[in-house]
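User: Please predict the structure of the protein below. I'd like the answer in structure-token form so I can feed it into my own downstream comparison script.

Assistant: Understood. Taking the following sequence of 114 residues as input:
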Amino acid sequence: MSDIEIRDDRAAGRLEALGEGEVVGRVEYFVLESPGRALVPVHTIVEPAHEGQGIAGSLARELYAVAEREGTVVAPLCPYVVKWAERHPEQAPPADPELLRAAKEWLKAHPGRF
């Protein structure tokens, strides 16, 4: 993987991977507040010219690191992040099923968000 910087644009709900001054990948997420606080990734996107460079994995790893630093959890709805978490249980503890249900309900209640 080339030199990639990852930044959290919390206001926009995006964890972005930057390479050479441009966004080359991102995880779109929201913050669930109830029944507990969680970061909820919904989509992982890597620009086609940058696929296969480990960017999506770096984004998933950083999302879990952000959650750990904030003392919260990740409740993944994004299929990529779900699979990444299954392959990296030491870095990605499983989400509480109640949080996952609440995240799915939040997403249904906000259809224009993603």
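That's the full token string. Residues 55-70 form the longest helix (16 residues).
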